[in-house]
Amino acid sequence: MNPDRLQDHCKWEMSVMTIGSGQYFSGWSREPWKAVNGYPCDVLACFQVLLGCGLRARARQLGKRKGIVMKTEMCVFFLVLAMGLDALHAAEAGTAGVTARPVQIVSCDSLPAGLDFQVQPMGYKPGFQIHYLLEGENLVGIKENSLTIVFIKAASGADISKMRNGRPAYKQSPFPEVSDDGKYGKFSVEVQQNQFGKVDGVSIKGMITVLQGSQREEQSVELTVTDKKKKKVGPFSVGIGSGETQFMGAGPSDEGPLGVSIVGPKESIIEVELLESGRKFDPRGHMSDNKSTTFFFAKPKSDKITVSVSYWTDLKEVRVPFGKSDKNPEATSVFRTWTSGNGKFTVEAEFVKQINGTITLRKRNGQEISVPIERLGRKDQEFIRRSHRLLP
Q: Which of 89, 105, 239, 347 would you label with 30, given CA atoms 20 to 30 Å apart?
């Protein structure tokens, strides 16, 4: 089956009932090989083999009819396909359980060049910051440098996501946090553009990677301070920090604290403890590079120590969309239910963009679908007209 030929000849609607999970998905697409939850053609090709040459011939015949609507003649195909995708639905389920909403905006006007630091407002940063609250279950962290921006627009509609030299005008603020109960988290987006007095009209769309985990494990290993060899602890390699990494005098020296170097999935680390004859040493911070994370402790007197590592065994990354619309109250909701013109199909998604009469919507799991504007219901078209100013 040639997907390129079908893409040339076929526009279709479809709905799939996912057997087992009870989830219902409806969507539209001008790309038939991306219509089912956005999965690429290589996944569908696996089911093509199972269904055999008869369905391939039938699909070729259907593909030659322009403007076809897939109905009951392909129900067997979709039933088998739905059962196969059920496991993939389960993998996506965590994303739908995490949401992000803006809770605070700090905007600063520009200051005179060379203004003495002593007379600058406390905490002053040029531009504006948007602080987001994450809500979900089993939150354990927010991945560093995982911020992706779709757009940042001023009230005038101008793109303010880049500086004059083309570099990004935004960044993910440091030190994101999650609550001890795993239900809440926070992160911030900093934008180096002066929107003082106009920040209510700024709109932003983006995604960030959130870490979730619920199963933890703890393992220990005996180390010799003078021995540089690393030992295996679960998915990690643990050893004494080398003298190449210096932080507060880190390393097995008499002057500074002891550094314990851990190589492995650093996002899954919960806590690292150093013990000497059962006595626990106070931590003194840590630092990371691309290869390892070094944890620092007061230098023990003995050459023999125990290092205990607690970590998440089921850590997973989920992409969480976030946004901020302009002060139009109807546009402040990032996600909404979109309905087709005939009322038969619905999907919960957020607006992303519009190109040549087709809008792109993003579902909660980050997958995107394309919908011709004229195939939306009247209320959805009116929503686009008012909140996104895309229709006359």
A: 89
